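Q: Got a minute? One more chain.
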Amino acid sequence: MKALGWLPVIAGAAFLVHRFAPEMGKACEHVFDKMPDEFPPKWMYLNITAIREQNERIIQLLEEQAKARG
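A: Always. Here it is, folded:
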């Protein structure tokens, strides 16, 4: 019976997340963009993005080499 009492709370929370998630994502992105580049979470994100781009370039070069070999 106790779990049944929590059901409306959980359903309400799920509804609110579903309803406001897109707006909150945009707001968080706007705040994140305003942070200085030395801010540790932004620094980590920028480094991860750079590593991902570098990995994509390496994979592309390896695929081109594989096609050139036959």
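A: The longest helix spans residues 2-34.
Q: Perfect, thanks.
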